[in-house]
């Protein structure tokens, strides 16, 4: 009985949306594609949290670029896998909780650009930006960029800390 009521309710909503002049079928399709992209990123963050190494890296293209928060962190897939192997070995990699995600699709719906705000217990609020590509029928992460968010009023202090001689340079010689 509950399933039947839920099914009727869903049909009423869909019929209402489809008949509304403000909601076009193309808009619903695009929202569905954006939802699929979001699901890949949800899996990505879940796999990292649970240390699911194969799942995490399976969501990435072979030529992925992962950009971390440190200047030296520009990882290809093989290098990033090597780096992540140890943290993921105990069943827990790293935990970033996504919120406020925005997805923009290319006209042909083959590329998606994403930005999302992330919460981390130790690092606070960060931003992840991603480029995903439709490979066959699967969305794959082509690039992911993790950045720290610095309030404008704190920017000068942060720059001073970064420029401080006590902070070792991690750049490539």
Task: Considering the chains and any ligands shown, give keywords for the structure.
single chain, 173 residues, six-stranded mixed beta sheet, disordered N terminus, disordered C terminus
**β-strand amount:** 25-35%
Classify the secondary structure makeup into a structural class.
Answer: alpha+beta
Largest sheet: 6 strands, mixed
What would the average pLDDT be, to the nearest integer? 87
The count of β-strands is 6
Note the gap between the termini. 69 Å
Q: Strands across the major sheet, in which order?
A: 2-1-6-5-4-3
Number of helices: 5
Helix content: 40-55%
Low-confidence stretches are 1-15, 169-173
Instruction: Write down the secondary-structure element order.
Output: HHHEEHEEEEH
- Please tell me what the overall shape is: globular
Give the radius of gyration: 20 Å
Itemize the secondary structure elements and their pairings.
Layout: H1 2-19, H2 25-50, H3 53-58, E1 60-67, E2 74-76, H4 77-88, E3 97-105, E4 111-120, E5 124-135, E6 138-148, H5 155-163
Parallel strand pairs: 1-6
Antiparallel strand pairs: 1-2, 3-4, 4-5, 5-6
Could you characterize the architecture of this molecule?
- This protein has 173 residues and is of the alpha+beta class.
- The protein contains five helices and six strands.
- It has helices at residues 2-19, 25-50, 53-58, 77-88, 155-163; strands spanning 60-67, 74-76, 97-105, 111-120, 124-135, 138-148.
- The longest helix is centred in the first third of the chain and has 26 residues, at 25-50.
Q: Could you provide a short overview of the structure?
A:
The protein is α+β, with helices and mostly antiparallel strands. The chain is 41% helix and 31% strand. The chain is built from 5 helices and 6 strands.
